TrEMBL record:
Catalytic activity of the protein: Exonucleolytic cleavage in either 5'- to 3'- or 3'- to 5'-direction to yield nucleoside 5'-phosphates
UniProt protein name: Exodeoxyribonuclease 7 small subunit
PANTHER family: EXODEOXYRIBONUCLEASE 7 SMALL SUBUNIT
Lineage, highest ranks first: Bacteria, Bacillati, Bacillota, Clostridia, Eubacteriales
Keyword Nucleotide-binding belongs to the record: no
Length: 71
């Protein structure tokens, strides 16, 4: 997995993997590889969302405490 991948790219790729696996047309070995890649992509997306949530909390708290609006 490319670490410079955006959240949106990772989510699209993860959706494609889920569709392939749900089709039931992939051999076991391929399904295992897809599952491994999908797990890594899900973790990547989760980390991106956690970072975004933390940033939003910091900005919100800063604004609520009277921080500079240009920050």
């Amino acid at each position: 997995m490319n670490k410079k991948m955006t959240f949106e790219e990772a989510l699209t790729k993860l959706s494609e993997i889920v569709s392939r696996m749900e089709s039931g047309n992939e051999p076991l070995e391929t399904s295992l590889k897809l599952f491994e890649e999908g797990s890594a992509l899900a973790a990547f997306c989760y980390d991106k969302l956690q970072n975004a949530e933390q940033k939003i909390k910091q900005i919100t708290e800063y604004k609520e405490t009277g921080g500079d609006e240009d920050a």
